[in-house]
Design goal:
Keywords: Ligase, Membrane, Transmembrane, Transmembrane helix. By secondary structure, the chain is an all-alpha fold. It has one domain. Helices cover 62% and strands 3% of the residues. The chain has helices at residues 23-30, 32-38, 43-56, 68-81, 88-113, 120-143, 159-162, 165-171, 197-217, 224-233, 235-240, 244-263, 267-286, 288-299, 302-319, 344-371, 377-392, 399-413, 435-449; strands at 63-65, 148-150, 172-174, 430-432.
């Protein structure tokens, strides 16, 4: 693989000799319910990213996939777009999003680089624990939809900061967005352990396929039945969220994985899935949960409102195509959400213009192009998650989901994760921090090893 760059000289006993550890990637996911109960919430991603950066200082174990260079340019463009911000509140929101975008890159790079500390089965196991946390939160929401939890952070955060709506939602937890006082009765949609029910659906569409992959990787293991029970139990709160986009995302992951399975010759398995999936869907539609989703589709105006919001967002982006506006802004119609919301792609387009959008999508699509080579089951699932991210960015804000996506990016680009038939080892090149110096040392070593000619 090609590589460029150089790093600091090696000092015996210095920190760079210490391999990268895996806990900054594993702990945020495996113990997510704990962070939710403590009031840390999504800030755990930023804390973990800071720990990764500390480990990287002077490290000689760091490699950066070339596809992520586009993400680096996207971060630079986000900073440049801040010149368009007109209020302090919007500046704070833009910095908050920038930190999450940077944290997502950290998760991809660390997963890619820390191969010894993050073997494939350990990462899929952590995501299965993540699914267990989501499932527990979902059942808690269904059992106690009006529960309010004052987390330890609610007693620590200053009152001035706690008055912020986002901070208040993180330190005082609610299990759902449901209220018994609505004019029209609505089904309880779990949100715990997240802020919103849509976040639950978005993350579930990424984590469930990884948990199923974990079952395949650990078949015959001691705890296999426990993980299978988690996967089965997660279905109830998942369908209760009534997330249309979640089903679309799962369909994208399934379609990508099926296409890759056909490419590696597993035609009969795919045909069986094609027959079973519609039958299972029909049975679910006939169930009370399926009827609730149909009722929501018939009674909601969200589709019409979203279409109007997206049109206004696009018109606004056309008025400021280069840098956008730096941050979402209120819509002209008071009943609509802010322009540049209700979809990560629209947030990027309105906040960072068409150049930022091209860099954002360009990174994901370049990874997807490399993932096309991975027809093995692991590559198929991880590539499907990246494809679903592109699709779901049209209608989901996905700061938390983006962390899962970037872990999938790190895994799909790692040659050591290819398992089973159809594996390919190409990762599209890598930028390492010590490669140029390493080449010089290798060349000197090779020249010194050549036999010297004797003078006649």
């Amino acid at each position: 693989m090609s590589s460029v760059g150089s790093g600091p000289p090696h000092v015996p006993g210095a920190r760079e000799a210490v391999p990268l550890s895996g806990w900054p990637v594993l702990a945020p996911m495996a113990a997510y319910l704990l962070w939710w109960l403590l009031g840390v919430g999504d800030m755990i991603w930023l804390i973990a990213a800071a720990a990764m950066l500390y480990q990287w200082l002077g490290s000689r174990h760091l490699g950066i996939p070339r596809s992520l260079l586009l993400w680096g340019l996207f971060l630079v463009w986000c900073v440049a777009s801040m010149v368009m911000i007109d209020t302090t509140g919007r500046l704070i929101g833009a910095v908050y999003r920038l930190l999450f975008y940077a944290a997502a890159a950290c998760f991809a790079i660390h997963t890619y680089s820390a191969r010894r500390a993050l073997p494939l089965v350990r990462v899929t196991g952590a995501m299965t624990w993540f699914l267990a946390c989501m499932t527990a939160g979902g059942y808690l929401a269904l059992a106690m939809p009006e529960l309010v939890i004052h987390t330890p952070m609610s007693w620590v955060v200053p009152q001035g900061l706690a008055s912020n709506e986002l901070v208040a939602d993180m330190i005082v937890r609610r299990t759902t967005q449901w209220s018994p006082d609505l004019w029209e009765p609505q089904a309880v949609r779990p949100a715990a352990p997240f802020l919103y029910a849509n976040t639950w659906g978005n993350v579930y569409s990424f984590v469930l396929p990884v948990a199923v992959l974990h079952l395949w990787l650990t078949r015959g293991a001691r705890w296999w039945w426990a993980w299978a029970a988690v996967v089965a139990a997660s279905v109830v709160p998942a369908v209760s969220t009534l997330n249309r986009g979640m089903f679309i995302g799962l369909g994208v992951v399934g379609a990508w994985a099926a296409l890759q399975a056909v490419r590696r010759g597993r035609v009969l398995i795919v045909l069986a899935g094609v027959v079973i999936t519609p039958l299972a869907g029909a049975l679910w539609i006939a169930s009370p949960s399926g009827q609730s989703l149909l009722h929501r589709l018939e009674s909601t105006n969200s589709t019409v409102d979203r279409a109007l919001l997206y049109r206004l967002t696009l018109e606004g982006a056309l008025d400021s195509p280069l840098f956008g506006y730096g941050s979402p802004r209120p819509a002209p119609d008071p009943w609509l959400p802010s322009l540049g919301t209700q979809g990560q792609l629209w947030t990027v387009l309105y906040s960072n213009g068409f150049v930022g959008t091209a860099l954002f999508l360009g990174c994901l699509l370049s990874v997807l192009a490399l993932a096309w080579r991975r027809t093995d089951p692991v590559g198929a699932v991880m590539g499907g998650i990246v494809a679903a991210t592109v699709v779901e960015s049209l209608y989901y804000g996905m700061m938390t989901g983006l962390m899962v996506t970037m872990v999938a990016v790190g895994l799909v680009l790692r040659p050591d994760t290819a398992v089973g038939p159809g594996r390919r080892s190409e990762d599209g090149g890598e930028v390492t921090l010590s490669s140029r110096a390493q080449r010089r040392r290798t060349a000197r070593r090779a020249s010194s090893d050549r036999p010297r000619r004797r003078r006649s």
